Amino acid sequence: MRVHIATDHAGLDLSRYLVESLTEAGYEMVDHGPTEYDPLDDYPSFCINAALAVKADRDAGLDSLGIVLGGSGNGEQMAANKVEGIRAALAWNQDTAALAREHNNAQMVAVGGRQHDKEEALEIIKTFLRTEFPGDERHVRRINQMGEYERTGAIAGKDINA
After folding, report:
1. With contact defined as beta carbons under 8 Å apart, do 65 and 29 qualify?
2. Environment class of 139 (CB within 10 Å of its CB; exposed 0-12, middle 13-18, buried 19+)
3. 16, 89, 97, 110 — which has fewest CB within 10 A?
């Protein structure tokens, strides 16, 4: 499986640890930056590039997921979610990581580098990467509704108030 990863300065050490650990575990890691520590860096471009790469891989039929990291993971998740069709989920434990895949078919996980030690973050991310989306009809229906709204600003048969 190919795994795209991006971070900001707050997650840089964790990102390097994850790239090494996940490569050893057999994942094909693609690092979207940054390459050096800059406390004033801007994470949106790194995270959007990782999300675009996940989307391109998946559109091409490749088995690909993504990871975005920051101090809390919140901003990085928001940036990745700006890419149409990408669902990035903030995970703070193994249960939320698994549910992001099982219920939402999330293609990307966000983790706060200042919220977890490296080993705990690695376990959260491994859980996300190895959890499959079972494809239950109710979850597919809800995911399709989110995609429909993203594309059209409406959900057929549902009341959306502006």
Report:
1. no
2. middle
3. 16
Instruction: Name the residue among 36, 26, 34 with its Cα closest to residue 1.
Output: 26
Active site residue 139: no
**Domain ranges for the chain:** 2-131, 135-162
Q: What is the mean pLDDT of residues 35-48?
A: 91
- 120 included as an active-site residue: no
Choosing from 102, 103, 120, 148, the catalytic residue is: 103
Is 80 exceeded by the pLDDT of residue 162? Answer: no
Q: Which of 137, 14, 8, 5 is nearest to 74 (CA)?
A: 8
d(CA 118, CA 98): 18
Fold of 2-131: Ribose 5-phosphate Isomerase B; Chain: A, (3.40.1400)
pLDDT of residue 38: 83
Beta strands in the chain (DSSP E): 2-6, 28-31, 64-70, 88-90, 108-112
Q: What Rg value do the Cα atoms of the chain yield, rounded?
A: 15
16 pLDDT more than 90: yes
Q: Which of 4, 9, 32, 76 is catalytic?
A: 76
